[in-house]
Amino acid sequence: MIPSVNDPGSRTIGLLAYLYGPGKHEEHTDPHLVASFDGMAPDPGRDPKATLKDLQQLLDQPVDALPEHARPAAHVWHTSVRTTADDRILSDEEWGEIARRIVAAAGIDPGSGEPACRWAAVRHADDHIHIIATLVCEDGSRPDDFRSGKRAQAECRLIEKELGLHQVAPGDGTAAQRPTSAERHKAERQGRERTAREELRETVRRAVAGTHSEAEFFGRLAAAGLLVRKRVAPSGDLLGYKVALPDDRNKDDEPVFYPGARLAPDLSLPRIRERWTSATPSDPVAETATDDAPLRAVPGPASARRAATTAAWQAVLVLDGGDDGIIAAHIAAAGEVLDALAKTSAAHTRKQLGEAASAFERASRSHVQAVRGHDRALRQAARDLVHGGPALGRGEDRASTAMLIDMVFFLVTAAAAWHGRKEHAQQAAAALQAAEHLRAAYQAAAGHPMAVLRERGRLLPPALHQRHAIVLREAVPQLAEQILAEGGWPALASTLTDAEAAGHDPARLLVQAAGRRELDTASSVSDVLVWRLRRLSGLPADASAMPPHRTATDRPSRSHTNNPAGARQDSRNRPRGH
Fold first, then answer.
1. 2-163 belongs to CATH 3.30.930
2. Helix 347-363 to helix 425-458 angle, to the nearest 10 degrees?
3. Cα distance between residue 215 and residue 530, in whole Å
4. Distance between CA atoms of residues 43 and 49, nearest Å
5. Strand ranges (DSSP E) for 42-83?
6. Model pLDDT for residues 384-412, shown as the tens digit of each residue
């Protein structure tokens, strides 16, 4: 249940006209009172003899009784209270009781004989009510409505539990500003799926991912097609910026600009600069952070994803046991990696990755001050993803995308766990929502490369499967039977064969891959181990281009064994003990 307290207004009759009117898009149905300060206020919606003027005069009477110079200029208090889409439809009686509790909690009508304001609650839809009050008490005093919005929020949390409604996570003041109703209606008129504010926030967030300087940041904004205005001090110093969509205009046909801080708290110029100023002079990142410095050698999409996977793995370990400030920095940088990944991934994963990045945006901010500088590896990973360019939806690009999504999933769930321990309810919920989108993106990315690996594994001789199963039981006894029962076991067996052929010890790799991080949140433990093993052993993520596995029946005939080089190559590729 979400209360939304608006800034005080000055015209009671104007707000009543809206509440009892058809709405801007004919969305209001059957407007009527569900409660009022005395239970006897006239209802213009259900009583044909009552008028809006009657109700307005009743509500404004304590205001009008004051001398004109003593009347508050903005005396109209207004809030809407809305249930969520999955809640049941409440009765008028339930909404009336909710209204009485909200005005009591907010200090409008505290009860117990204390001075109270006049108010009325209007319902014109199934899922919400509006409460209007005039901010002068019956005795001419002003109500104690300080932080009325926070107090209403707290009361709604109690009401949700008592009525069995969806429980909204309490806020902490670090969320991005929501679009106003006017912005939402404007987007609907223009046929936009999202408001201009939401589009701008996503575009700016993606533009800042992995940047090292103001020039690079503003260059990306321009390349994205945004209009940019910079706020410059008389000294010439840059103080801030505003952005606008070229086709989002006001009634005078002028672009509507939004300051970065009004898009999200961490998108103000000073907060963005914190990401750049944290690098030390000895940092390799700092050495490339000047406006004129050339980019370091930029890897292609696949190698950028493999490097990002390693950075994400290291970040997971930090989140498991680092200091809070360092963890907060890594979580913020993880948001940049998600933005960069969504921006550069192929069409079959782009939507879910975009949803994951949008959800995780809320998880990237909290009241814990981020200690920047320790997040260099993740920020560099985001930078490499952007400059590596768009990934293809096939081959190594696709497989390495699956590998990275798999690791980022664990990073995001680790962030959710940390936020949960800190009682950051909204951030933890947002991280878990992002994780679900990552699951869907992983399924889209991993389908083909895992199918190739499973087919290669099925072609292995039974004796080799048995030998790998013995190694698995010895290396990870607590997980072995679960893995052997999974459909992904052939893919893991194929990867163990590839790793052994490349000169690695399969048992040691398994211990290293499984022992450093929990696997309880994995849908398929064998899939997770496949990607970790292929990363640790330097194997291609995409096995379709690899030659078939060498087995006992594939050994060269005696006519070829007189070639020493060929013999050495065969020995190197043949699985041990087979």
1. yes
2. 150
3. 41
4. 9
5. 76-82
6. 999 999 999 999 999 999 999 999 999 99
